[in-house]
Every structure is written in structure tokens, then in C-alpha cells.
Amino acid sequence: MPAIPAITDRLFAFPEPHFLAAEDLDPPDIAALLDLADAFYEAEASRAPDLFQGRAVACIGPEAKAFEAPARRLGAIITDATPDLIIINHALSGAAMEMARTSPCSLINAGDGCNQAPVQAMGDMLALKRAFGGIDGLNIALLGDITYSPQARSNAITLSHMGAHMRLIGPATLIPGDAESWGCDIYHDLEDGLQNVDAILIQPVAAARLADALIPSWREYAHVFGLDLTRLSLAKPSARVMHAGPVRWGIELTPELADAPASLMAAQSQARDAMRLSVLASFAVRLEEGA
Amino acid sequence: MNLALVNARLIDPTTDYDGPGSVVIGDGIITQVIKGETPPEGSAQIRVIDCDEKVLIPGLIDLRVRCGTDTLAGLKDACIAAVAGGVTSIVIQPDTDPIADNGLVIEAITGRGRDLGLARVYVAGAASPGLRGDALPEIGLMLDAGAVLFAQGDTPITDARLMRNLLTYAGGFNALVAHRPYEPALGSKPIVHEGDLAMRMGLIGIPAMAERIGLERDVALAELTGARLLIDQISAKDSLEPIRRAKARGLEVLASVSVNHLVFNEIDLSDYRKPYLFDPPLRTEDDRTALCDALEEGLIDIVVSNHTPLAPEDRMGLFAEAKPGAVGLQTLLPALIGLHHDRDIPLLNLIAAVTLNPAQALGLPQGRLSVGAPADLTLIDIDAPFALREKDMIGKSKNTPFENRTLTGKVRLTVTNGRIVFSTPL
């Protein structure tokens, strides 16, 4: 089945040799990526173009596995041997950039330690753009563990790049002391932080934060920072809720929110898939042009 | 009941006023403060009390009170002793039984305090679960249960990383953390000051530097985190310089001292006298006078009684095995008045350290003679001498260093929430 024109018309070569961090993209590149991802979001799975034409893609690390299926859909062979493109997820901050320095091929960062996860963040932006029509002027709150979340950092940078007003909400132990320099407002009181908010992106709190004495207990976390319908009512009536996953139900947010009209979580998952396809496609075009 | 306290000498640290005046109260709040000799407008509805030019001050706020091992029974003794001593607000330390590290215990203690209706009872939540110093406390839950600050009792948090996390986490709630500055590795028992006297008594002692080492770390972490820190109960002259530096740098750092360390020194415990065992220990006369000067200067913000009732069995046995601490709610105000008489420290400075300053530290509306403030008041005859005898001591625990000493300053009237809760004939 031929690829639909909406995708082929919007294809472009990724502007940088690697996609390591949110800062790698200028607003026009972000817009182009969102447009392409929008087309993938609408298209049926079987109608992805064969852009890789049998080129080798390596997916290294747990989070990188999510790129295997979309890469295959675009015609890639998944192998670690002499790859043409590497998707890397690593537990240590800076790993992606350090590897890129000596890598013979392009590299996409699927999350390095507490540093960045730009593709996931672009996926979240796609879900927001589809829900709100645009990003400019939205009040967006990142709620939860900001310090140790690579996605939160990428979310904050990409979204404010596109004109969103960003705020970070969470325990003082989980928000970097210098986060204000990102241009974000900081709240340690959830109810204050939710006022006038359009969207809430919950950032997961790992069990290690409890073991490291950065939060006292799950019941306290739920009491102070857990999102429920009552607290959500403090945000704008049209406010939507997303979660960077995996969800700690009943602590980070109440199960009632899963199916609530405010939930954008199903669309978020689909948008992330579409964004992976879009980023991979733009690197396939770059490979093709370089070949 | 509406009440007019007329013909008094008012001391109000909010406005630095020390002069004649009257205070009218109704519905539990101060409705009129008249500075000057004009009496308030008469009204048949108002009960008028002639204060006979005695000193009328805001009721005292004591930030460091324990109520013994039987917490709720001890609380009653503490409240009765408090109002007899002119103290109208007390903050119970978290080393209760069970430990006040959760909302239920805090609500039980404050609820019991409300039922007693004598002094206002607040609780300092534990700064770590079980006061073990190994994890973060549930500050959000405890604040909602009414905790007014977070304290660690007498066992400091030794782990600098945990202390940093505690200050950072508390800072997110704008909560006050009280911490005893102390390096426990330099400690020893019994708790006496390391120096000439201890050496001559055959005791090892704890150096003043143990306090400064802890203090320098805590102040550095307060600077790192920007949190509000109460340096709880300093005892040594050497501790004053780091506090001065911290305040000059604009850190939100407060310091407290126990009244015992302003009145007594290590000489008092020579001959192995157990009532003078305190934690931190009484230090030299040079330390004591430096602490008094620092209080007068305002470098030390808050004076506490560190009221610590001991069971009779804790007072028996040998000096080297005895528990430190003394009751102090009844003697806090007379001891401060004594410092005014002996060292000429202005009453305004002394009174601020037990009223306005602790109120501001905790964000409480009392502790001031202002219209609209809660009607918590104490009337004291600052020139009346009395000898403290064991039979005059309220409560089961009689461990006081003031026994058989002459004190000056008798509490005549104590008003909490507009109600007379203690009075002796004028």
C-alpha cells in the first residue's frame, strides 16, 4: 500500500547530525517535526513509507526498545552490528553526548540519566498541540520529580521554546535549585500551582526517591502532591492531564482521573508513537540525502 | 467576658513601648490598647481590674516544653505550671510517648490542650520519623495536623545529606526547623562542660567546640538551602560569632537559649549537684555573660524554659548517671526579671525574647499588645521577691535548680484567650 501524501509531503531531513537534547531544535524545526508527527498520528500503521530501505538501526537500552517497532515500520532492520542509526537510552547523564562524539553514525537520545529525553518530550508536545491547537501562551505545569526526570528537563525546554508559560510543581527536594533560570515558575504548593493551568504533565517519582530520603512517605506525597478531581478543579475548566509514566495510581493521581474527560493519557501514548516515527523518518531522509 | 486591665505599666515589644497604660479585651481578643494614664471609657459590661502600676505584658510563649513520659497526664501539670508562670502558649517537644512524628499524636496533644483550656498548646513535629535521624518527616501531614515547627529533640541529625534534604523539604512548606547544634562524637557522660572544673571533678566533659562544629554545619546548610532554621539552645560564647555571621549574610536563622544558661554556670554543679545537669551543659561564667549580652543585643532571638520534668527515679542515684534537665515553666519569667535587676538588661528586650520573637518565628498572632491580637496577657509584680520551695512547685516533678533560691517577680494574673486562668491577690 502506498504511503499517504500527508506524510511524504511533510518529510524533511533532521537538521542536526544527532538528536541529543531539546536545545538541538529551533522553533521552525520543532514545527516541522510536529507537522510530520501529526500526519503519522492520523495515518494507519500499514501506510508508513519504506524510508530506511533495509538500513540498520540499533536500539540500545530499555527505553530505546520503544523505537524498534516504528523503525521496522519505516523499513529498518534492527541490529546492533554496524548500524546506520543508533537509539540510545543510558542510566548516566551525558552518555548520549559522549557517545555521539565518537559515533560513526547518527544518534538519537532516548533518555540519558537525569539529563534529557527529547523525543518523549516532543511526543508530549504533539499531544498538547492536538488538544489545544497550539502551544503558544498555554500555562503548562510539570508536577512531580523534576530533578531526576530526563523528560521533565526536555519538556520544560521544548515547551517554553514554543511560547508556553512553564511552571514546576513538586517537593523542594525534587526541583533543582536553579530551575528558575530555565524561565519556569516554581511552586511547592500544588493548589497554588494549579491556578489557571491549561495542562498538567505528571512526572513520575521513582521508589529510589523514598530510599534516598528525598520524600518522607507515599502517603505524604499523595496528601501533598497527589492530583485528584477536586484539585484539578482549581485549574482551568478545560485543563488536561498527562503522565510521563509509569503511573503510581492513588499516589501521583487518583484512578478516577484515568477515564476522566480531562485525561490526555491515551492520546499522549499515541502521540509519542507518532513522534518516534517522525524523528526516525527525518533521520532516514538525512541518511538518504547523505548517501 | 469583657475585661479592662487599667493603671498598668505596659511593655509591648511590637512598638517598643514601656510606660503607663490600659488594655481592654472582649471575645478573646484585645479590643483597645491605651498608652498613657487616661483610663478607658467606663461601661457596665466591663469588669475593671486595677493593676496597681504592675507590669502588663503579652502572655509568654515557650518554644521548648516537655511533659514527661506520661505525655497527656504531664501535659496537665505543664499547663498548670505554665499559667502560674505567666506562660500562655507552650510548644511541646516531639519526644513524647509515642513520638510526635505523625498527625494523630499531634492532634491528640493539641486536643487535650484545648480541653484543659489553660495555656495554648502547640506541638513541634518530629524532624525525623521516630526521631531516629535517618529519614524525612511527614511535614505536610503534620502541618495539616497543626504542627508549628519541626524539631529533633536533643539527638542531632548527624547525616549532613539528610539534614540538607530536611531543610530543603521543609523550605518547600516554609516550615521552621529547630536543630540543636552538636557534634555527638565529641560528647561524653555526664553532660558537663569540658574545662578546668570538670577536670578537677574527675569528669571528661564536652567541649564548647562540639556545639560550634554542629552549628557551622547547620548554618552552611541553611545557606545552601535557603531554609528557615532555629538554632536550638546554644550554650557557648564560641557559638555567637557564626550566628552573627549568618545573620549578617541575611540567612533566615534564629537562635535560642535556655534561661538556665543565662542564670547559672558550671560552678553551680560543683560538688556534683544534680539539679544543675543540663543538656547542653552549663558552661563558664564567661560563656554565661556573653549569652546575656547577646540576648540584650538581639543576636539571640528567643529564650526557652526547656521545661523537662523528670521522674523521681531519674533524680535518685549518682551524679554521673543522672538524667539532665529541670522543670522551668514556673520560673522562666521570674528568672528573666532577675536578669533585668542583676544585669540591667532592659525589660523590653527580655520580654520580646519570650513573646513577640517566638510568635513571629512560628507565625502566631499572639505575643503582642495590639488591637485584634489574641487576649493572652500576664501581669507581674517585678519587685516582689519570693523563695521557691518544693511545696510551691506545681506537678509531680520537682526537679528545679531554683529551689530555695530567692527570685524576684511574682505573676499576679494570667489571661489566656480573654479568660483569667491564674491569679494571686495583688
Distance between the termini of chain B: 21 Å
Q: What's the total count of β strands of chain B?
A: 16
Shape of chain A from CA axes? globular
Please state how the strands of the largest beta sheet of chain A are arranged side by side. 7-6-5-8-9
**How far apart lie the N and C ends of chain A?**
26 Å
The amount of helix of chain A comes to 25-40%
Please give the count of helices of chain A.
Answer: 11
Annotate the secondary structure layout.
The complex is a heterodimer of chains A (291) and B (426).
Chain A: H1 5-10, H2 27-42, E1 56-60, H3 68-73, E2 77-78, E3 85-90, H4 95-102, E4 106-112, H5 118-132, E5 139-144, H6 150-161, E6 165-169, E7 185-187, H7 190-193, E8 199-203, H8 207-211, H9 218-225, H10 229-232, E9 240-243, H11 265-290
Parallel strand pairs in A: 1-2, 1-3, 3-4, 5-6, 5-8, 6-7, 8-9
Chain B: E1 2-12, E2 17-26, E3 29-35, E4 46-50, E5 55-58, E6 60-65, H1 71-84, E7 87-92, H2 103-116, E8 120-126, H3 139-144, E9 149-151, H4 160-172, E10 176-179, H5 196-201, H6 208-225, E11 228-231, H7 240-248, E12 253-258, H8 259-263, H9 285-297, E13 302-304, H10 312-315, H11 332-343, H12 347-352, H13 356-362, E14 377-387, E15 406-416, E16 419-423
Helix pairs in contact in B: 1-2, 4-6
Short description:
The complex is a heterodimer of chains A (291) and B (426). In chain A, helix 2 crosses helix 5, helix 5 (118-132) packs across helix 6 and helix 5 (118-132) packs across helix 11.
Overview of this protein structure:
The complex is a heterodimer of chains A (291) and B (426). With 291 residues, chain A is an alpha/beta fold. Chain A contains 11 helices and 9 strands. In chain A, the strands form 2 sheets. In chain A, strands 7-6-5-8-9 form a 5-stranded parallel β-sheet. In chain A, helix 2 packs across helix 5 (118-132), helix 5 crosses helix 6 (150-161) and helix 5 packs across helix 11 (265-290). The two termini of chain A are 26 Å apart. Chain B is of the alpha/beta class. Chain B contains 13 helices and 16 strands. Chain B has helices at residues 71-84, 103-116, 139-144, 160-172, 196-201, 208-225, 240-248, 259-263, 285-297, 312-315, 332-343, 347-352, 356-362, and strands at 2-12, 17-26, 29-35, 46-50, 55-58, 60-65, 87-92, 120-126, 149-151, 176-179, 228-231, 253-258, 302-304, 377-387, 406-416, 419-423. In chain B, the strands form 2 sheets. In chain B, strands 1, 2, 3, 4, 5, 14, 15 and 16 form an 8-stranded mixed β-sheet that branches. An 8-stranded parallel β-sheet of chain B has the order 6-7-8-9-10-11-12-13, with helices on both faces. In chain B, helix 7 links the parallel strand 11 and strand 12 (253-258). The radius of gyration of chain B is 21 Å and the shape is globular. Chain B starts with a strand and ends with a strand. The mean pLDDT of chain B is 95. The chains are: A alpha/beta (291), B alpha/beta (426). Chain A binds chain B through residues 171-173, 188, 212-217, 219-220, 223-224, and chain B through 129, 134-141, 144, 161-162, 165, 168-169, 171-173, 225.
